[in-house]
Amino acid sequence: MRFSSSIRSTLLLYILALPIFVGGFSAFSTSVLASEETLLLRQPDISKKNIAFIYAGDIWVADRDGKKPRRLTSHPASEINPKFSPNGQEIAFTANYDGNNDVYVISLDGGQPRRLTYHPGTDMVNGWTPDGKEVVFASSREVKSGRSNQIYHISKNGGYPEKMMDALAYEGVWSPDGERFAYRPHRQAYFGASGWRQYRGGANPPSGYIRQKVGN
């Protein structure tokens, strides 16, 4: 079969351009895949030696410089709010393993997470007491308003949770010396998909703190 000179020129151009196209597409695909591996790292927490974060619904930990990342949990359900204990050896988090958001603790070395709460209400981990003996979490189990919670403490070894105060507190955290507790009484009015980053307007809820020692 004979081709005209114009057709032969066109075929030759395609043949010469094919390696460039394939190589460029391969490089583009590799670049996209590489970028996808580091996207959506959420809810970071930091200790003296490590970083914890959520990726693809699981808890991962890495060195503080980002090296040696490893997955700590692999349950099909999602984990959220990882918080290091003061000594950095344990991580408290909230997970929906059994159809409800409850508080769990897992060792930095991995293993089976230890469930701490069993109430049908949502329990969201906020952190730890400075002595590392108790996990602090927020729950709306006794609140009629849908925009707030109350703060509870529960032993890292399990037991019955203790409500910190009757006042509303959507979330809060202890100072390192255990003498002050900073909290926010209500969640944002723009909570969820309707939110705005770095919003500073009048719908932003107030924050405050109380002088109270852990255990009092």
What can be said about this structure in brief?
With 216 residues, this protein is of the alpha+beta class.
Count of folded domains: 2
CATH superfamily of the largest domain: TolB, C-terminal domain
**Spatial strand arrangement across the major sheet:** 1-2-3-4
CATH class of the largest domain: Mainly Beta
Overall body shape: globular
State the end-to-end distance: 95 Å
**Average of pLDDT:** 81
Number of strands: 15
Q: What is CATH's topology name of the largest domain?
A: Neuraminidase
Please tell me about this protein's structure.
The chain is an alpha+beta fold and 216 residues long. It folds into 2 domains: 39 residues; 169 residues, Neuraminidase. It contains 1 helix and 15 strands. The protein has a 4-stranded antiparallel β-sheet with strand order 1-2-3-4, with no helix packed on it.
Features:
alpha+beta; 33% strand; Neuraminidase; four-stranded antiparallel beta sheet; 1 helix; 216 residues
Layout of helices and strands:
Blueprint: H1 5-36, E1 42-46, E2 50-55, E3 58-63, E4 70-71, E5 79-84, E6 90-95, E7 102-107, E8 114-115, E9 123-128, E10 134-139, E11 150-155, E12 162-163, E13 171-174, E14 180-184, E15 208-211
Antiparallel strand pairs: 1-2, 2-3, 3-4, 5-6, 6-7, 7-8, 9-10, 10-11, 11-12, 13-14, 14-15
